[in-house]
Write a structure and sequence with these properties.
The chain contains 9 helices and 22 strands. The chain is α/β, with parallel strands linked by helices and 470 residues long. The protein has 2 domains: 374 residues, Glycosidases (TIM Barrel); 89 residues, Glycosyl hydrolase domain, family 39 (Immunoglobulin-like), CATH 2.60.40. Strand 1 and strand 2 form a beta hairpin. The longest helix is centred in the N-terminal third of the chain and has 16 residues. The termini are far apart.
């Protein structure tokens, strides 16, 4: 394909993605007025959740229906799901009761088992030319249960092999399939020039999954989890993004495509035009939102952890990220485990993250706080609010000048804050992010700025300011 044809094709993709909207009967899309957020069933949508470790479908011992009900009960609206092309050994990363590490013989993946024994974790080897119908039934049923409750599913198609222990369990490894495919080192698996026949296997898998799920409106396709590890090339990622787009072109509809960019932060350069959601992990402080806000796409923080087990750490990460202008936040919640699909598993102190019933409630308060705002017309602003004195306290602000302001303060036990407001009458309400309780609102008059004193708090507090009369 010559350069002119490539450029024309990319412009077409960019135009189609930029104009994607979601109405009743169409997939979740970028909001046409503010593409930093989503639209679904013709309503603005922000995605906030605290979900299991991505094995809800591939782990036969996990009851995904109970799990989805728990998310819904706490008003959360996102789950992240691995396709099954990647699986972990028990004990990986010190995770207890890991949903991505099924018990022996309890692993389900897209490829069918052959008649030949010898898979590394029990039962028969895989045939990469045949599909397991029971897997696709379970996958579609899980997505359907989520769709009934207006919960979005970010389906992660692939994941790098961090260590040989994961590659030794992969159906794509030649030792685990009857096709003689995948006799390579793990760092060559996600390349265009070193993985041999595996590329076609991966393409066929993408084609199968995208085709099977074409009728669902609550799907976002993530190309690859943490592709900055394990030898995953950018060329391969772009190839998969183009493949998803081309497959769906034949259906006349397009689901959003997300790309995992980095841990913490990075400035995105030369993004693929079909990618609409750019995800980061462990994105605190949330500087990555400001670094990439100019892209006019959703910036997400879709995995947390490695910062202790305390609820407050991940509650504050969520508030900070969303108030910085992010449109997606998903805490990695280790209280979900097989047999504990209601999120009550008591993990030990070595667990590489947190999660609890209490945290899910707190993130539900964040979601409802955002839904109380017309956030489609708001944007982050670092100049409108000033703490006095600032000290170690930090403030984050979303605002629509002269109309609505949302502020979030961390640090200390109380705060004095100056807010620049055009002249007018405003209502002021404080929210406790831990309890979800609002302090009774009061009216304030501004002649250009106001000084507010917060009620006492433990670690953080939120503030909503709305115009009453210009």
């Amino acid at each position: 394909m010559n350069r002119i044809k490539i450029a024309t094709r990319l412009l077409l993709i960019s135009f189609c993605v930029a104009t994607t909207t979601s109405v009743q009967g169409q997939p979740i899309g970028l909001h046409p007025e503010n593409p930093h957020y989503f639209i679904y069933k013709n309503k603005p949508l922000i995605l906030i959740s605290s979900g299991e470790h991505y094995g809800a479908v591939l782990n036969l011992d996990f009851n995904y229906r109970k799990y989805i009900d728990e998310l819904y009960t706490n008003r959360l609206n996102l789950t992240r799901l691995f396709s099954g092309a990647y699986v972990e050994p028990q004990g990986a990363f010190n995770i207890e009761r890991n949903t991505l590490a099924p018990a022996r013989e309890r692993y389900l993946c897209p490829w069918s088992r052959s008649k030949q024994t010898g898979y590394n974790n029990g039962r028969n080897m895989f045939d990469l030319t045949q599909w397991d119908t029971s897997y696709f039934y379970r996958l579609k049923d899980c997505v359907a249960e989520a769709e009934k409750r207006n919960i979005m599913v970010e389906l992660t198609l692939f994941c790098p092999f961090y260590e040989d222990s994961q590659w030794l369990l992969s159906p794509m490894n030649a030792i685990n399939n009857v096709n003689g495919v995948g006799n390579i080192i793990r760092t060559d698996v996600y390349t265009l020039d070193k993985n041999g026949p595996l590329l076609k296997v991966q393409e066929d898998l993408v084609r199968k999954i995208v085709t099977e799920l074409k009728g669902f409106n609550n799907i976002i396709y993530e190309i690859c989890n943490e592709p900055y590890f394990g030898g995953v090339t950018m060329e391969w990622q772009h190839h998969i993004a183009s493949l998803i787009y081309d497959i769906e072109n034949n259906f006349g509809t397009h689901h959003l495509i997300s790309q995992n960019i980095a841990n913490a932060s990075m400035t995105i350069t030369d993004p693929h035009p079909a990618v609409s959601v750019f995800n980061f992990h462990y994105a605190t402080p949330p500087v990555t939102v400001a670094m990439n806000y100019h892209l006019n796409k959703v910036i997400g923080d879709n995995e947390t952890g490695f910062n202790g087990n305390s609820d407050s750490v991940y509650r504050k990460e969520g508030w900070q990220f969303i108030m910085a202008g992010g449109g997606l936040y998903n805490n990695l919640d280790y209280s979900f485990a097989p047999g504990y699909e209601n999120g009550t598993f008591k993990y030990g102190p070595r667990q590489p993250g947190g999660g609890s019933t209490g945290l899910r409630k707190q993130l539900g308060y964040l979601k409802e706080f955002m839904n109380s705002l017309d956030y489609i017309h708001m944007q982050p602003d670092s100049t409108v609010a000033m703490l006095s004195p600032a000290g170690k306290q930090k403030v984050y602000c979303l605002m629509e000048k002269g109309k609505q302001y949302a502020l979030y303060i961390t640090g200390g036990k109380s705060a004095t804050i100056e807010v620049l407001l055009p002249a007018g009458s405003y209502s002021v309400e404080w929210l406790n992010p831990v309890t979800g309780i609002y302090q009774k609102g009061k009216q304030v008059e501004s002649v250009g700025k106001i000084m507010l004193h917060s009620p006492p708090f433990m670690e953080d507090i939120a503030l909503r300011i709305m115009i009453s009369k210009p």
